[in-house]
Amino acid sequence: MTDSTTRPPRQARRRAIGQPEIVALGVLAVLLGGRWIAPLLDVPTLQTWSTIFVAIVIQSTPFLVAGVVLSAFISILLSERVLQRVVPKRPSLGVPVAGMAGIGLPGCECAAVPIAGSLMRRGVAPAVALTFLLAAPAVNPVVLVATAVAFPDTPLMWVARFVASFSTAVLVGWWVLSRTGRLPIMNRAPALDATASKRERFVATVRHDFLHASGFLVLGGMIAAAVNSFVPPAVLDTLAGQALVGIVTMAFFAFIVALCSETDAFVAASFTAFSDTAKLVFLVVGPAMDIKLAAMEAGTFGVPFARQFVPVVIGTAMVVASLVGWWLL
Predict the structure, then answer these.
(1) Residue 6 lies inside a defined structural domain of this protein
(2) C-alpha–C-alpha distance, residues 223 and 253, integer Å
(3) 3-state SS assignment for residue 197
(4) Running DSSP on this structure, what letter comes out for residue 242?
(5) In this structure, what are the phi and psi dihedrals at residue 189, rounded to the nearest 5 degrees?
(6) Is 123 left (phi over 0), alpha (psi -120 to 50) or beta?
(7) Which residues cross the membrane (predicted)?
(8) d(CA 100, CA 165)
(9) Any idea what DSSP says for residue 190?
(10) Cβ distance 327 to 149 under 8 Å?
(11) Is residue 189 included in any domain, yes or no?
(12) Among the listed residues 105, 158, 162, 110, the one whose alpha carbon sits nearest the alpha carbon of residue 128
């Protein structure tokens, strides 16, 4: 009896400093230490890398915080209930409505996958739920404002991003609708803590999403700074100078780097050698499908589903973003 009553508090105390806290301290150390490491090494290229990296992270962090807080609020308190009320009964009409719902019911990529699974379990058509999954991280106000701030010299970039992302979500949603009965969706339910209050779930969601997304932000900032600092300009000019190669390269970067949509515009803007259309492809492909999203969707909806869904999303995003970029940019 004594062991069972005293052991949990000791476990709780041991977990007071765990992986999330270590990640946060690591991010803080990188941000603060980057200013001193490069000058000590006295290497101009490293100083350039440090400057670009710190600038990307500092510019992005306020939008990341705003995005995860808003996403947690929506996913815990509003999104499923409101979306079910506003979505038409006919899935063909529900698909574009779900795309527009991403404006008022935003969510980051990580939050959108479980929300989509929950919507399906509550009776929402898979095509509608998956359209919301694709639209919410890409067309919400936080993302669009961040894009406008990151591209002050390209005022139509946020408009192009909205049009391309919304069109991608709707087209993929209609494709899913056309595959009804033939697209294998397993939709495994996640394990939930039924005893947690809404406040506890809200805090836990904000904490998880911020630490998870900040890690990818730091990684993305490091890669973007490295590309701009260490890759010879001639190589970048060669890649960026060929329209198709530049688009494919930026789509590949978006898939691998796996940035949060609230911060990816600042990373995209740092790739100055690439065309605005290639940067738009980066901004549309990333929130729609990256390596972490592909893994999450395979785990939630099944590997057979992901094998069909992932290539369709990437291909649609690339084509639509290229056409919108040619039109608007």
Answers:
(1) no
(2) 9
(3) coil
(4) S
(5) -80, 135
(6) left
(7) 21-38, 50-78, 127-151, 157-177, 210-227, 239-259, 266-289, 309-328
(8) 11
(9) P
(10) no
(11) no
(12) 105
For residue range 158-181, list pLDDT tens digits in order: 999 999 999 999 999 999 999 887
> What is the reported pLDDT for 15?
46
Shortest CA distance to 283 belongs to which of 263, 297, 309, 312? Answer: 263
Interatomic CA distance for residues 48 and 212, integer angstroms: 27
What's the whole-model pTM score? 0.73
- Residue range(s) defining the domain that contains residue 267: 23-184+194-328
Residue 16 DSSP SS3: coil
**Burial classification of residue 36, based on how many CB atoms lie within 10 Å of its CB (0-12 exposed, 13-18 middle, 19 or more buried):** exposed
How remote is the C-alpha of 173 from its chain's centroid? 18
41 pLDDT higher than 50: yes
Per-residue DSSP letter, 17: S
Name which of 184, 10, 190, 199 is nearest 110 in CA terms.
190
- Predicted confidence (pLDDT) per residue in 281-315, tens digit: 999 998 999 877 787 788 778 889 989 999 999 99
Closest CA to 280 of 240, 221, 320, 244: 320
Give me the phi and psi of 119, to 5 degrees please. Answer: -60, -40
Total domain count for the chain? 1
The answer to whether 165 and 135 have CB atoms below 8 angstroms apart is yes
Q: Tokens 């936080």 label which residue?
A: 142
* Placement of tokens 């390596």 in the chain: 291
Specify if 134 maps to a domain: yes
* Phi-psi region at 62: left, alpha or beta (left = phi > 0; alpha = psi -120 to 50): alpha
Sign of the CA dihedral 280, 284, 285, 290? positive
